[in-house]
Design brief:
It contains five helices and three strands. By secondary structure, the chain is mainly alpha-helical. The chain has a domain of 95 residues: Orthogonal Bundle (Arc Repressor Mutant, subunit A), CATH 1.10.10.
């Protein structure tokens, strides 16, 4: 029996060129562009989690989910944003999504941006050169099979 569950999924969105804006707005566009956030979604806790992890990357710090939650809460207060989504279970779920996107590593309940590398480098290596070609190849296999089915 063939499962209808995808082995992988990639969502990429193209927006206008980045202009001078704040770091949070840039991170929001990154999250939207990578499919980590849906357009018009008011629950944007992912943006703050990614910002916290990116800041820790610069200092080569591993962070626990509790530390991430505390830093996200502080960041959201500084930006006068709603505190919805700060439950520990939601933070862990968002971290899992970042891990599934191969942008974050987990080791002994500590998290970091993969190899403390810049996000652009991770995108080029793990998405652009690895995931996208594999996905395109699989789609081509299905298209080829479709052409051969009577």
């Amino acid at each position: 029996m063939i499962k209808e569950v995808p082995l992988g999924e990639i969502t990429l969105r193209k927006y206008e060129k980045p202009y001078e804006t704040g770091k949070r707005e840039l991170m929001r566009k990154v999250c939207l562009s990578l499919g980590l956030l849906q357009p018009g979604d008011s629950r944007d806790i992912m943006v703050d989690i990614f910002l916290v992890l990116d800041e820790a990357r610069k200092n080569k710090q591993w962070l626990s989910s509790f530390t991430i939650r505390d830093k996200v809460e502080q960041l959201r207060k500084e930006n006068s944003l709603d505190s919805k989504g700060l439950a520990e279970s939601n933070i862990r779920r968002q971290l899992k999504r970042l891990r599934d996107a191969m942008l974050v590593d987990k080791q002994e309940n500590q998290y970091r941006i993969s190899e403390f590398a810049p996000v652009l480098e991770l995108f080029e290596i793990k998405v652009e050169k690895f995931l996208i070609p594999q996905t395109i190849e699989r789609v081509k296999e299905y298209l080829s099979k479709l052409d051969n089915v009577q």
